[in-house]
Prior knowledge:
4 strands, 19% strand, four-stranded antiparallel β-sheet, Arc Repressor Mutant, subunit A
Amino acid sequence: MAKFKLDDTDHKILDMLIENTRIPFTDIAKKLDISAGTVHVRVRKMEETKLITGSSLTIDYKKLGYSFIAYVGIFLNKTSQTQFVLERISEIPYVTVAHVTTGKFNIFCKIRAKDTNQAKNIIYQIDDIEGVTRTETMISLEESINDKKRLMHSIFKEF
């Protein structure tokens, strides 16, 4: 698949959308001194080429009482069990991210919980999945970097 060519205006539009996915196109247009129609056409082109796929909200889970974050490395008996285990993991709502990985773990997950007791029970659920031989857990003390814009700006500098 060929790279999608972006110009400086596209970069600025993406920058504003990353900051706030709900920003009206008219606001973007005013800030960039272009028409709202131009913003619409450019965003639509980025959507059609799958450079942009959907939008998302960020939820502050701490405000809902889910401030405990842990990462769980999962060891499997056989790598052929990966899909089966992923399907079982997807049934546990507190597992928010799962990656199939190389290296030490077969699968690496992020979990959210209210406290250590709930996290322990989530880990026990993972341990009980057929094919899981053991897990290794790391507790997140703090999320220090979660910046969607830094990578995008680095990529833009390459063009």
